[in-house]
Amino acid sequence: MKITFLGCAGGRRVTFKQHRGSGGFLIEGETAKIHVDPGPGAFIRAIQAGIDLEEIDSFIITHRHLDHCADINTLIEAKTMGGWNPGGEIIAPNDALNGEDPVICKYHRKHLNKIHVLKENFETSIKELNIKTALKHVHHGVETYGLIFKENSVNLGYVTDGRFEEEILEAYKNMDVLIVNTTFKNPRELDHMCLKDAITIAQRLKPKLLILYHFGMEILRMGLTKAAEYVEENSKIKTIAAKEFVSVNVKNHISVNKIKLKNPIGFTPYWK
Ligand SMILES: [Zn+2]
Ligand SMILES: [Zn+2]
Fold first, then answer.
1. How far is the CA of 261 from the centre of ligand 2 (A)?
2. Domain ranges of the chain
3. What are the phi and psi torsion angles at 109 (to 5°)?
4. Percent of the chain with pLDDT over 90
5. Which one of the ligands is nearest to 139 CA?
6. Which ligand is nearest the CA of 15, by number?
7. How many angstroms is it from 161 CA to the middle of ligand 2?
């Protein structure tokens, strides 16, 4: 399994000043390709990385906040070539699909093969890759679900946005790699986690690799590498900070690499 990050932005300012990318991340299994939480700029970041969006099998939105879904309609158009080549799937909570103010246009949905409603106990497979809900998170009143991805013997957990709860320590057991949305440096009375929560999660769940992700300004000021070092020192669990265009390969061992951009300025070349 390979995870390629197209961003690591979390808070408003980091996202909307684009201090870091906010394109979500791509999961590639043996054959399945899944784009998770495509926030603002996901389309262009994917082009920069040289990802062929027509090859994406499924888009997943953990919740309807814009930093997790802003580019979804554009990506469906890119996947289906504006509806010429229908196909692909989307997995999203009910309030993102069918709420008062859905984030996925009905017109674009028509071009997909399947629409899955993400909920508690949800489970599906995209080719050989199994996806299931780990936990419904408490997050600013919107339906939000953390996920577990499994293929062969590799388990990846994605602890998406939400308040720290004891249930997290049960729901994400036995993961090889755990991505944790660690928005704040210090604890705050908001539905987001901080470095202290990431340390508790790492200590208790003991993944082989912890990936901090979804950063607000406090952590940017501290420095992403420093934040990861702080969590690793205190938890004794190998920790990295997600950065755009970094990929993590998980097989017998885990390797972290910076990818070479195919289209650095965000255009695919076309010459006559
Ligand atoms: Zn978020
Ligand atoms: Zn959110």
1. 28
2. 2-255
3. -60, -30
4. 97
5. 2
6. 1
7. 5
| Tens digits of residue pLDDT in 79-91 | 999 999 999 999 9
pLDDT band at 10 (very low <50, low <70, confident <90, very high): very high
* Rounded (5°) CA angle 186-191-193: 40
Q: Which ligand is nearest to the CA of 65?
A: 2
Q: Which CATH superfamily, name and number, covers 2-255?
A: Ribonuclease Z/Hydroxyacylglutathione hydrolase-like (3.60.15.10)
Confidence of residue 269 (pLDDT cuts 50, 70, 90): confident
Centre of ligand 1 to C-alpha 67, Å, is: 5
The pTM is what? 0.97
Q: Say which ligand is closest to the CA of 163.
A: 2
Cβ atoms of 25 and 259 closer than 8 Å: no
CA of 95 to the centre of ligand 2 (A): 13
